[in-house]
Amino acid sequence: MNPIAKRRPVTVSRLLAPLKQFLTRLGVGTGHEIRLRSNYRLGDAKVRVSFDRVPIEITLGQDDKKLHLYPETRIDERGKPNRTGNFVIVDPAAQPGRINGFLRLTPKSWISLGAGDRVQQAVFNYPDAVDEEHLVIIHGPESLVFRNLSDAGATIGRFASDARGTREGSYRRLREIFGGPIEQLPADEALALIEKVNEVMRQEAYRPHSDWGLPGGLVMLPGSLTPILVADLHAQVDNLLTVLSQNAFLDALEDGSAALIILGDAVHCEEDGKLREMDSSMLMMDLIFRLKLRFPQQVFYIRGNHDSFTEDIAKDGVPQACCGPGNWSLAGAMPIARPWRISIAFCPLWSPPPILSRVMQRRRKRM
């Protein structure tokens, strides 16, 4: 006689399993998966599309508004794109060569596309046929989930993205700007670079002169320049390269229609155990200095606490000062600022002129 099989314990998940399967068949939950070999017209049910099926072209309505969704990538020092796990939604009809807005979809988040969102309306210029809430996109663990909310419907399909070619072209242009491979300069070349930047800083554009007759701590940008604000790079060189190689930021710098404003703290890697490692910080500043020489009237560095001219400021025992030959003059020439009117000006807390920082350096040597 066969022994009686041991009965499995009754759990909530076991009780809900049939209901979950039933709802999944109805399109509720994560939806059913499609391979997206061609255009797919969305109905009332949710559908899943695996990450390997992107980039995706989204059509809202019959043919009223097209958007492109593709993986966001980060450029490393060798120019190799690496996926971040995020997705970017852009308007393919946006004017090329101009800075345009976009939406970012991060893991475990969702976004509702529709004219009811004022930011989206400003970025994508939705036509009247697009509903206030038209399409929901969910970033799942291994796939994207799409749910149509509009009677006008929506369609998804694959398209050939030229984003990689655009990024590679931008990276080649960055190498030309940086004068060669993106790597740390030898000490003598780095010092010569700092001295050249010091010369530029003594007559930096858009900075009214102080009582000492030198550029003061106020940076006043004309309304014709689109500000590109970047903060807290903390020696992550790939982040700087990614910013410059995406959208049309590099184009805007080259045609003089934008200004790159780095809001301090470009140095000191804040990853665990790397605060004392300075090679990446020196490479970061080498790149920023070369950008300043290439675009002297469009690249500005607003000094943060990690760029202080005093060694009294420290974090975990690591001084947060710009130490080294030539850096005292540079640190003193940088404005300390906080945004006041982003498109026009940056107001200072206080900014000593270069001569004052050199005096302080000599005083320290006497002590």
Automatic annotation (TrEMBL):
It comes from the Bacteria. Transmembrane segments: none annotated. Pfam families: Metallophos. GO terms for molecular function: hydrolase activity. Residues 229-311 form the Calcineurin-like phosphoesterase domain. InterPro entries: Calcineurin-like_PHP, Metallo-depent_PP-like. SUPFAM superfamilies: Metallo-dependent phosphatases. This is Metallophosphoesterase. It comes from Candidatus Dechloromonas phosphorivorans.
